[in-house]
What we know:
globular, 2 domains, three-stranded antiparallel β-sheet, mainly alpha, DNA-binding transcription factor activity (chains A, B)
Amino acid sequence: MDFEQADALNQAIRLLSLRHRARAAALLAPLGLHPGQEALLLELARTGPAIQSQLSEALGCEPPSVTLMTRKLEAGGHIRRRPAPSDRRASIVELTDSGRALADQVKHLWCALAEETVAGLPAETVAELPGILTTLTGNVDTRRSRRLQGDSAV
Amino acid sequence: MDFEQADALNQAIRLLSLRHRARAAALLAPLGLHPGQEALLLELARTGPAIQSQLSEALGCEPPSVTLMTRKLEAGGHIRRRPAPSDRRASIVELTDSGRALADQVKHLWCALAEETVAGLPAETVAELPGILTTLTGNVDTRRSRRLQGDSAV
DNA sequence: ACAGATCAGTTATGCGCATAACTATTATCC
DNA sequence: GGATAATAGTTATGCGCATAACTGATCTGT
């Protein structure tokens, strides 16, 4: 691949990151959320209570980030933490009623954002887009390869 | 669009952002660069000396970010700043010899990253990917709409 | 020609996410 | 069963990028 094409692709990904995040921030701000927090709420809404290491895995971010996210959402009254009965190291995180209501609002925003994002693209392209993006992500996912290395090393 | 699809898309964009940036960071680290700085070097390599507001526009980030980026790259000896002769407010930013050499290295990394990113995708998909991503970016670009509003208001 | 608006750039501050280093608990293996 | 390794989580710190508020220079309109 020549540099022109490579740069077009890398730059496009970089700009999409910045703009999509900025747009998400603008939409989430009225709910009192910052981007990143919505992912935690949606994950809890999807799978129910979870410990932080599971959230870290699901959200694709590191444990210290989860610590901060949970702390802020807890301060906002949207989630609750309680000790895990079977493991005194772990905390179980779950939605409060307020958090569930907030998650529902986020879902609507999320649909609006997705529709806004793919406006003007043929339906066929839109349909295959998540798969393409997931492939790209997998190709550069040092987290996954790190974990596989760890697994195989055992 | 239902929530499942919307979430798949938004989540895919979010994860791609995190992972692509992380991978870029890993590749750039040996050169002593942090992600974001490479874009400035490449822009200067592409278009020659420019003032910071042009860089801000080209990189899609805000002026304070450019201030910090230029300061760090200047401290590293990769760029140089001199006052613009025709406008005493502006600084002209340009590559040093070291910066030009570094930009060439970055170009190679950039090609490698792009190839790694699109591995396993059909060539046809790869060819239209930059266009698709640019469309997505345009759809959520609050910067552009902000600027257009400003223009039309005059 | 001069007052007011616009523009280039900086400083201060805040958020998200990362890594490194640490504590406390649990699992493993001789 | 007791040393050792692995795991859950936290704190400290640093980077990128954002907004808000500011200074100084340039442009505009009357």
